Amino acid sequence: MTPEESLANFKDRTRLRDRYAKQLARLQRKEIATACIEETVEEASANLETAKERSLVIYGDPQSGKTEMMICLTGRLLDSGHRTIIHLMNDSVDLLNQNLRRFKEAGLAPAAKSSFELAASAKVPLSQEMVVLCKKNATDLGKLIESLEGRDSVVVIDDEADYATPNSKVNKNKKTKINALVEQVIGANGFYIGVTATPARLDLNNTLRNETEKWVRFRAHPAYTGPDVFFSVSSPVDYRLRHVSNQSSQSEAFSALIRFAITVGYLNSHVNGAEEYYTLLMHTSGNKSDHAIDRSTVQGFFDILMDDENSEFNSLVEQIRTTAPTLYPRANVRTIIEYVIENASRASIVVLNSERDRKLLGDRASEPTVPFTVIIGGNIVSRGVTFPNLLSMFFTRNVRGKLQQDTYIQRARMFGARGRYLEHFELTIPAQLYQDWHRCFVYHRLSLETILAKLGSPVWIGDSRISQVSNASIDRATVSTSSGEMGFGLFDFSTEMDTVVKGAPEEITTLESLHNLVGQGGLPSFLIKFIAGTARGSSGELAIHESSSIAGSSDAIQETISRAKGFLGQSQLEPRRFPNAQHHVKIFHNNAGKARLFYKYTGSVNFLKNSR
Question: What is the pLDDT of residues 65-84, one digit of tens each?
Answer without folding.
Answer: 999 999 999 999 999 999 99
